[in-house]
What does this fold into?
Amino acid sequence: MKIIEALKKSKDLLKKADDIKDKIKQHCADLDNEDPIYPDQKRQISEWLQAHCDIIKEILSLKYRIQKTNVTTDVTIEIGGTFVTKTIAEWIIRRKELARLEEQCWASLTERNLLEKYKQTTSSNIEKTVKRRLYFDPIERDKKREIYRSEPSLIDASLEIVNAVTDLV
It folds into this structure.
């Protein structure tokens, strides 16, 4: 089974579990002046409870296998002209959180709205230009920001392919 199949099956099983839970909730009790919906309603509720338990076990197994596969499967993605290899799990973390944090850090490199200005010194009575100093390369900052801004979509594209072709462990 491929990762994508396991993800979809897990989602379907969750829906089935919810449906069974709703049936249990609706039919678990009635008034003695009502006719039961099922010939042996108590047995039906027991069967639904067992089916729900079995579905939960299957979901657990699938999710465990997906996680195990994600932790053990390396994926190489080209980011900013460099090929980077990480596990699927690491790429998911970068996608969800870390790429955005890196982009925000590079975005904090600004000129702080400091303008070059003239300043008059009192000792010699002459005007002197006060220049702004940057302690970073603006070109590098802009490149890094673009790399980290586009990284999530590159990860998404690569992982879609990997999920479709990678077998569960």
The first strand starts at residue 74 and ends at 79.
